[in-house]
Design goal:
Layout (H helix, E strand, L loop, with lengths): L5 E10 L22 E10 L2 E7 H4 L9 E4 L4 E4 L1 E3 L11 H8 L4 H6 L4 H10 L2 H17 L2 E7 L6 H17 L3 E9 L10 H18 L5 E6 L6 H13 L3 E6 L7 H8 L3 E4 L5 H8 L4 E4 L1 H6 L8 H7 L2 E4 L13 H12 L3 H8 L1 H6 L17 E4 L6 H4 L6 E6 L2 E5 L7
Parallel strand pairs: 1-4, 1-5, 6-7, 7-8, 8-9, 9-10, 10-11, 11-12, 12-13
Antiparallel strand pairs: 1-2, 2-3, 5-14, 14-15, 15-16
Helix pairs in contact: 5-6, 7-8, 9-10, 10-12, 13-14
The structure holds N-(iminomethyl)-L-glutamic acid and fe (iii) ion.
N-(iminomethyl)-L-glutamic acid binds next to helix 4.
Length: 429
């Protein structure tokens, strides 16, 4: 039986993200990054998983479908697009809490990696795990993502580093994406670090990636994007260029981890390749800020990693925004540098540590995240025709989303118009 339409009415603040130039279709840059399209006492009418109408409650109530719709009074809520978290490493077997304690005692992330810990310790345990062992934990995390307002999540492989294990990860991602509740977007990160068996011949591993792993992943349609950790201790820009160029030939669009641990040239490469996104960028140079600002590449900032590593150099968000770069925000959820599922916490860090305004942070975490995943025609803002992916916070003002840090105030989340989280039992199922 087709479901009844759903009318979410009287939202205290409805953030549509409609901009002052609604005809512009690219990611938000400069002043437009802070445009929330805020409607007080706003309403969203949902039918068939999509937004049928949106605007002031008085007007939406007059829509022909509104009369027979199930109604929700959202008087106590701020309603906004579900978060589009465009960078995560969701599939891993266990935390690395021991390394966390070592780092607190003064051993650096890179030193731990040199001793064989870090990413490689997750690789060792992941290779031993089966897909059916990996899926339940990821499933529990996905419920937590939904509970914090996230409706779409990019997920990278990269803890397998051999064909069989990488495919195992990507198949878990595919299975969980079909299952829901959160829509997943798969990225192949076979070039995370050089696996131990290729330690002394990294170029042979690059060759394996290009000759065998990338073509196989692409032909099985297991990933939409290809990422490289281009940094000290991982891959050089020259290697990254080879890998991403052949990924593109196979139909996977490039993205890059760039300038996180050292300034190695990843940002420049991203701009040159017109990568879909360049992520991290804590150590980006002035010249590369200009290069990325002039490119279509989205600059995805991951302040959770800086926070969790106990560092103080955050990415220069203000300089990027002022130069005209398209900035997005994501969790980078992973066991080594950023074990958080909370986009609201990422917004708090973006505001206080990178001086983004609450409005800029919200657009970066929704619409620009959707652009970073090439899904902005369907996701990331609330407009008639777009998918009904919504998050609601029990607050009086949208600025309170980053302001009240450390408490989850998301109360319900809808994916394609269906409830995926409802703390108040308010939404008809
Ligand atoms: O984005 N920098 C590389 N990859 C992850 C960390 C992965 C890990 O430590 O397990 C990141 O920070
Ligand atoms: Fe990452």
């Amino acid at each position: 039986m087709p479901r009844k339409p759903l009318l979410i009415a009287h939202c205290r603040q409805l953030l549509t993200l409609r901009g002052s130039r609604p005809e512009a279709s690219g990611p938000r840059r400069g002043r437009a990054l802070g445009e929330l399209g805020l409607i007080r006492d706003g309403a969203v009418l949902i039918a068939g998983g999509r937004i049928e109408a949106i605007g002031p409650t008085r007007r939406v109530e007059r829509h022909r479908l509104a009369r027979r719709a199930e109604k929700v009074n959202a008087r106590d809520y701020i309603v906004l697009p579900g978060f589009v978290d465009s960078h995560s490493h969701l599939i891993f077997p266990a935390s690395r809490a021991g390394e966390y304690e070592q780092r607190i005692a003064g051993v650096s992330y890179e030193e731990i990696a040199r001793r064989g810990g870090g990413i490689l310790s997750t690789v060792r345990s992941l290779r031993r795990a089966t897909g059916s062992q990996l899926a339940p934990q990821a499933r529990r995390w996905l419920a937590q993502f939904a509970a914090h307002g996230t409706t779409t999540l990019e997920c990278k492989s990269g803890y397998g580093l051999d064909l069989k294990s990488e495919i195992k990860i990507l198949e878990v991602i595919r299975r969980l994406s079909r299952e829901g509740p959160v829509e997943l977007v798969a990225t192949f990160l076979g070039a995370h670090v050089v696996p131990p068996e290729y330690k002394r011949r990294p170029d042979r591993y690059v060759e394996l990636l290009i000759r065998r792993m990338i073509p196989t992943v692409a032909s099985r349609n297991l990933a939409e994007f290809c990422d490289v950790f281009c940094d000290r201790g991982a891959f050089t820009p020259a290697q990254a260029r080879l890998i991403l160029t052949s990924a593109r030939v196979c139909g996977m669009d490039p993205r890059l981890h760039a300038e996180q641990l050292a300034r190695t040239g990843g940002a420049r490469l991203a701009a040159e390749l017109h990568a879909v996104s360049a992520d991290h960028l804590e150590l980006i140079s002035r010249a590369d800020i200009k290069r990325l600002a002039a490119s279509p590449t989205i600059c995805t900032l991951l302040p959770g990693a800086v926070f969790h590593l106990g560092k103080s150099t955050y990415a220069p968000a203000r300089a990027l925004i002022e130069a005209g770069a398209a900035v997005a925000l994501a969790t980078d959820f992973n066991p080594g540098t950023s074990p958080t599922v909370s986009m609201p916490m990422i917004l708090s860090l973006a505001c206080t540590q990178m001086r983004m305004s609450p409005a800029e942070a919200i657009v970066a975490a929704t619409l620009n995240g959707a652009h970073a995943l090439r899904r902005a025609e369907r996701l990331g803002s609330l407009e008639a025709g777009k998918q009904a992916d919504l998050a609601a916070f029990a607050l009086c003002d949208y600025r309170e989303i980053p302001y009240y840090f450390g408490t989850n105030l998301c109360r319900w989340t809808l994916k394609r118009g269906r409830v995926i989280y409802d703390a108040d039992g308010q939404i008809p199922r």
